[in-house]
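Now read this:
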Amino acid sequence: MQYEVLDEQVKQAVLILKNNIELMDILDFIYKLSLPNFYIAAGSIFQTIWNYYDNKPLNDKIKDIDVIYYNNEDLSVDTDIKYYNLINDYCIKKGYKYEIDVSNEARMHLWKKEKFNIDVEQYINSEDAINKWIATVHAIGITKDNDNIKIYAPYGLSDIYSRTIRPIKHKYNTKEIYDKKAKSWSERFSNLNIIEW
């Protein structure tokens, strides 16, 4: 029964996301770049679903497009910048007004060491990274396989549909980071059920 519910939730999410023309256009463009193990992830995905049920434009209050990929053979920052420029230039040309963020999840342990001076384990793939993000609604990504949209949501979709902000606790997440994210979402979206850390 649980699998049937999840299957129906995924089908509904795909139908909703396909109506976000800008997001689908960006997804198609990124797919053609052939980034390994890539996803458009996090906010632009679950916020599209929230906007749909609020009868708002699907991109309402979506600030950024988070693009992740995984390439352990090329950990250079320059490669992230190259992909950022390609995707950002495409969005500017199309008149899309998003901040673009591009991250090779294979190098996040290096970035966290440089920025925060903390030692973390290297992710093993993009899915491993999504598994460890800050909240269950945040832990979602979409990618393409030929013409099919695929959703990766390791904690399911129920929290997205019920607007439940639930922390994902592991040794690299903190209450401070979680509270900051939850506050940001609550300022832009209504009727959220925020689970305390």
Observations:
- The chain has a mean pLDDT of 92.
- The first strand starts at residue 39 and ends at 41.
- The helical segments are 2-18, 21-33, 43-53, 77-94, 108-116, 126-131, 158-161, 175-188.
- The domain at 2-161 is CATH 3.30.460 (Beta Polymerase; domain 2).
